[in-house]
Write a structure and sequence with these properties.
Two copies of one chain form a homodimer. The first copy, chain A, has 342 residues and is an alpha/beta fold. The longest helix of chain A has 16 residues. In chain A, the strands form two sheets. A six-stranded parallel β-sheet of chain A has the order 2-1-3-4-5-11, with helices on both faces. A six-stranded mixed β-sheet of chain A has the order 7-6-8-9-10-12, with helices on both faces. Chain A is elongated, with a radius of gyration of 26 Å. Chain A has three domains: 54 residues, lambda repressor-like DNA-binding domains (434 Repressor (Amino-terminal Domain), Orthogonal Bundle), CATH 1.10.260.40; 130 residues, Rossmann fold (3-Layer(aba) Sandwich), CATH 3.40.50; 137 residues, 3-Layer(aba) Sandwich (Rossmann fold). Chain A is 43% helix and 15% strand. Chains A and B meet through helix 4, helix 5, strand 2, helix 6 and helix 11 of A and helix 4, helix 5, strand 2, helix 6 and helix 11 of B. The first copy, chain A, binds a DNA duplex (16 and 16 nucleotides) through helix 2 and helix 4.
DNA sequence: CTGAAAGCGCTTACAG
DNA sequence: CTGAAAGCGCTTACAG
């Protein structure tokens, strides 16, 4: 009779409980529970018996019952920007895969929610419904609503990006330094007039990148020429206008703060018959596949988005599980010098 | 005393329960529960009283308790391919955003899990741990393990893609027809020799696309020239070799089954100094942003990945909630004729 | 080292 | 229309 599960694979709905195990093994539910969790002092034999049974009948604890008793979800939330512009870069996709990978390894699952500009209602809902143990924020906006909400309510979270508040766990590359080095290298290489086209300054990361640009120029004893710097270029029209002006002012190089901008710039230059790198050198940020396979291949700061994701996941789960080190994680970047700046 | 929550916003951890509401309102827990769920016959006044209280004190039902009692998670799982090649297209990102959007509207959350080739262990774990009410599969492989696993165990799921088993809810574009039309249009436009470069044939979708190509040629009374067809081109090396052969055989047009392949083809042609469309026309599938902004803009079948996601989410949640219509959803596509085939 | 029992916060027959 | 009570399947003090 009690053998009627023999040899059967897992069948959905055909769940056994701790009570079943206890009964079949002639011990109490408490004992089974403790054997499984490893908490408390349990006899070796009992433990083995329980484990064998579990193995054989593919016991899986009831997620809800466990949660109700312990208040842990074993879920982490990832806040995904759902603004118009993100769809064109695989940045968040890569990040998410990184998060999923660690999460899986540490027995967590990943719930995705979206944040549209500063509308954090879905994020709030996720948190208030108690569906996650913590949150990964994947960017930092100026006056970020998500950050203040999570901070104020004491929800565990980490930020992929940088911010001033050192009590927040941050995972980032050093964008400022990376941009500074890139621009310095280009200057050392004989470039005379470097322009910059930057994205939305509400995104803190764009500020770091332009700072790096300024710093490099400064170190080189060059002043900032305002007709060479275009920030807040989040629409194709702005970008094209910026390129037009830059060309007019005889710059010989453009640094773009992200790949989407860079793609637009390249496309526009081709339209205008301005060849890269002969008439204009181009460099960009975050080395997506498209820059590498572009013709000519584009010089870029390469960062590993998967690594950002795995690190963020690891840090968040650490935080949830009580390892309370909140040092910032700074990940590496690489400068890929390619033909577009030769 | 009972006013000590007055005016306070939601504070994490400071949760009120149905028992609290019942006590403060002088009714029983059952009544509160029924008022909230709307099940059973409840007095109008009582309902209003409960709703007002809930509103005022921002009551959120305990997710675990509810789940334990009802066995519903209000989560749907999305199986995300984590193979090497997907990172370069924003396809799954777009799909995911679409799913998140409906899910949010219907009060569900979205858990992402990954499937690497035919390793479905993480998917199994998600299901066996009872963390989701159903699954969205985002592609169909030959002999797909995920499909058989979910089918056999009676787990609600939908497939973004097509398969023969009509009992499975499918959401797809008509790739065969789309490709057939595209090729027919090109032929009608005077193209003489159309080659095809197709991706991995383990992906069912690639088979539909090449079928469409064959069919169009057939309708036109043209035979299949085997030196013009290259399938299973999943690596850059294969793609380049295919292009070389195609050029050699004097074809005047290449249809690519996806944008990643197309990107490679374009890049290689540029390397070789073969200009598009003068010396070679190019068309592709799934109109990503890059094809549109490419120079020259690339002719492509455009499908809305977000729409696939929202439809999949809607159908799955319908299935979970008991609307048992399993007709296939066929979504529109557009043929964007652009300069690359002029 | 092990058991009996209470508790987590819901839902839902059952009875009125 | 409403209440008292049992039940969902775990965990964990408490007692031995």
């Amino acid at each position: 009779m009690e053998e009627n599960n023999e040899g059967k694979d897992f069948l959905y709905g055909n769940k056994i409980t701790i009570a079943d195990i206890a009964e079949n093994l002639g011990v109490s539910k408490s004992t089974v529970s403790r054997a499984i969790s490893g908490k408390g002092r349990i006899g070796k034999d009992t433990t083995k018996k329980v484990y064998d049974y579990i193995e054989k009948y593919n016991y899986k604890p009831n997620y809800f019952a466990k949660g109700l008793a312990t208040s842990k979800t074993y879920n982490i939330g990832v806040a995904f920007p759902a603004d118009v512009n993100v769809g064109n870069t695989p940045f968040f996709q890569g990040l998410l895969l990184g998060v999923c990978e660690v999460a899986a390894a540490l027995d967590y699952d990943v719930i995705v929610t979206t944040v549209k500009d500063s509308d954090i209602n879905l994020l709030k809902r996720l948190v208030e419904n108690n569906k996650v143990d913590g949150i990964i924020l994947t960017r930092n906006l100026l006056n970020d609503m998500a950050i203040s909400y999570l901070s104020e309510n004491g929800i565990p979270f980490v930020l992929v990006g940088s911010c001033e508040d050192e009590s927040i766990i941050q995972i980032d590359n050093n964008h400022l330094e990376a941009c500074e080095k890139l621009v310095s290298l280009l200057l050392a290489d004989g470039v005379k007039k470097i322009a910059m086209i930057g994205g939305d300054r509400k995104h803190i990361v764009n500020r770091y990148r332009s700072e790096g640009y300024y710093k490099a120029l400064n170190n080189y004893g060059l002043g900032i020429e305002h007709e060479l710097v275009f920030l807040d270029c989040y629409s194709p029209v702005f970008i094209e206008q910026a390129v037009r002006n830059i060309v007019k002012s005889k710059a010989d190089c453009i640094v773009c703060t992200d790949d989407v901008i860079c793609g637009r710039v390249l496309s526009f230059l081709r339209d205008e018959g301005i060849s890269v790198p002969e008439n204009m050198k181009i460099a960009s940020f975050y080395d997506s596949y498209h820059l590498e396979t572009h013709n000519p291949p584009v010089t870029a700061i390469g960062i590993s988005v998967e690594d950002l994701g795995t690190e963020a996941g690891k840090r968040l789960i650490g935080l949830i599980d009580g390892s309370n080190n909140n040092k910032k994680s700074i990940l590496d970047y690489e400068i890929h010098l390619r033909r577009s700046t030769k």
